[in-house]
Amino acid sequence: MLILLPPSEGKATPTRGRPLDLDTLSLPELTDARRKVLDALVALCREAPEDARTVLGLSAGQADLVVRNADLPDAPTARADRIYTGVLYDALDVATLSAAAKRRATGRVAVASSLFGLVRLSDRIPSYRLSGDVTLPPVGPVAAVWREALAEVGPAAVGNGLLVDLRSGMYANFWRPGPELSGRVATVRVLHEHNGARKVVSHFNKATKGRIVRALLEDGADPRTPAAFAADLERLGWTVEIGPETKTGTQLDVVVTEV
Predict the structure, then answer these.
(1) Which helix (H) or strand (E) holds 239?
(2) 39-47 LR contacts (CB < 8 Å, sep 24+)
(3) Nearest 5°: CA angle at 208, between 205 and 210?
(4) pLDDT (tens digit per residue) in 149-203
(5) pTM surpassing 0.85?
(6) Does 138 sit behind a cis peptide bond, omega within 30 degrees of 0 on the bond before it?
């Protein structure tokens, strides 16, 4: 099973740690694309910081993020599970997982990244700012870079198991599994039910996805189909409605009444 998570916009900034070494990251097939995006981002932020702020969609008060990007080659790194923060990652809370669940997380979880394509939770990366909808001169839209780079790497990372795709729409654009994987792709939508009405609420969506991943890792469940995944979620206490299989996979609606 491969669980794909979105990155967080905000990130923790390590104060010490060895600098970035692209050659040590998992999925080494992505190294050339990673280097291309990294070099373009660093050059933009070093040589044209005002332009960089516009390109990256930052306010005047976020100029420090441009400086941070300019220093990426020498910046301290930490494990990705310590860099990414926010509601989903707080709910997942990798630091407090059992030893067995942490081992499963290392092998089963990957994070979509505008800078690195995909990273495992154990990969050492610096804090950076680059959203998935940025067009980065001279490489162009970062989503297009990763669509090309992940065309073969994505299916290989899934292997013969189930893909649990929890990415947001922006990062789903980096790679969309083809029809050959449709029977082994499960996407999750979290619906908040209140007074008989259902709607998608960002906080509930992120927190519930983090809790789902945590529960799966602690439980050790390794479903091979969307139906088996839905059954595992129900066994673990969630209310799940499973949709029909389509050419892009099967959507599961997880219905929650409180976070």
Answers:
(1) strand 239-246
(2) 40/136, 40/137, 40/138, 40/139, 41/69, 41/72, 41/115, 41/128, 41/130, 41/136, 42/69, 42/70, 42/72, 42/73, 44/69, 44/136, 44/137, 45/69, 45/70, 46/70
(3) 110
(4) 999 999 999 999 999 999 999 999 999 999 999 999 999 999 988 888 888 877 7
(5) yes
(6) yes
